[in-house]
Amino acid sequence: MYENIKYEVKGNLGYLTINRPKALNALNTEVLSELADALKEIEADDAVKAVIVTGEGKAFVAGADIAQMSKLNAVEGRAMMQAGHKVMNTIDQMPKPFIAAVNGFALGGGCELAMACDIRIASSKAKFGQPEVGLGIIPGFCGTQRLSRLVGKGMAKYLIYSAEMINAEEAFRIGLVEKVVEPDALMEAAEKLANTIASKAPIAVAQAKIAINNGFDMDLKSASQLEVEATTVCFGSEDQKEGMAAFLEKRAPEWKNR
Ligand code: CAA
């Protein structure tokens, strides 16, 4: 069982909750290790079609654990950052959709966790930022890379160099989050989106994620070839036959995930 996170499956959805509310869900090495284990569970479970990531209490995640990091030398710091990268990259590369339901502070490693997810829905009370330079480090869970890819280089530099905290509306304006809702409506909005995605052909959703995420860092020619390969996987699936037959027969499709 996990001590610092909660992982539950309800229906087709996985719920991954960072659960250290007294430390505003700060990511220490124990949380990272539990997240790595939960991600293995998620990957192995075909019944889980989409995952909602959120935080317990008033924060989403207020960053990597500063108390723990304050004692680390360069070798140890590097190891912790690599553990963070592993978690973020696993989310990014797993062919299942992850939705961040950002309920409060998403700072430093918290903003990086939200950015590793496929889609971010924020409570209107959420706050975002990369405060690391004020602590003598830089974003270390791939924030220098994912933030610039999401909001552009100039805005990423503005946020990272200034360490400024922004509210949910500003995060929406710059493209850091895809939707902002009232705090009480957050989980409902995340579940509605997750259920909508879960109702689509899982192979198609997985191939769309692979094509978008892997293609983003390629030149257009290679990325377009990647899309051809991804569509070929879809055309080779039973679910492509089912999806198109269901459309023509005016009925709901029954996905087999093969
Ligand atoms: N690490 C460890 N503990 C943290 C923490 C963090 N990132 N963020 C908050 N906490 C702890 C506080 O130390 C405090 O603990 P105590 O009750 O034992 O004193 C508790 O959580 C509650 O926090 P506050 O009293 O500070 O709550 P607040 O509402 O007054 O302020 C806040 C909230 C503005 C988010 C403030 O807590 C804050 O600035 N936190 C740090 C944010 C930060 O700098 N994050 C980046 C970390 S570096 C990083 O993430 C590196 C990376 O890229 C991987």
Short description:
The protein is 50% helix and 16% strand. It has 258 residues and is of the alpha/beta class.
Write the layout of secondary structure elements.
Blueprint: E1 5-10, E2 13-18, H1 29-44, E3 50-55, E4 59-61, H2 66-69, H3 74-93, E5 98-102, E6 105-107, H4 109-116, E7 119-123, E8 127-129, H5 143-151, H6 153-162, E9 166-167, H7 168-173, E10 179-181, H8 186-198, H9 202-216, H10 220-235, H11 238-248
Parallel strand pairs: 2-3, 3-5, 4-6, 5-7, 6-8, 7-10
Antiparallel strand pairs: 1-2, 8-9
Pfam families: ECH_1 (PF00378)
Family: Belongs to the enoyl-CoA hydratase/isomerase family.
Catalytic activity: a short-chain (3S)-3-hydroxyacyl-CoA = a short-chain (2E)-enoyl-CoA + H2O
Largest sheet: spatial strand order:
1-2-3-5-7-10
Distinct small-molecule ligands in the complex: acetoacetyl-coenzyme A
Sheet/helix structural class: alpha/beta
Number of strands: 10
CATH domain class of the largest domain: Alpha Beta
| Poorly predicted runs | none
Going by CATH, what is the homologous superfamily of the largest domain?
2-enoyl-CoA Hydratase, Chain A, domain 1
What is the average per-residue confidence, as pLDDT, rounded to a whole number?
Answer: 98
> What is the number of independent domains?
2
Largest sheet: 6 strands, mixed
Distance between the termini: 31 Å
Q: Give the assembly state of these chains.
A: single chain
Helix count equals 11
Q: Based on CA inertia axes, which overall geometry fits?
A: globular
Estimate percent helicity: 40-55%
GO molecular function: 3-hydroxyacyl-CoA dehydratase activity
Subunit structure: Homotetramer.
Family: Belongs to the enoyl-CoA hydratase/isomerase family.
Protein name: short-chain-enoyl-CoA hydratase
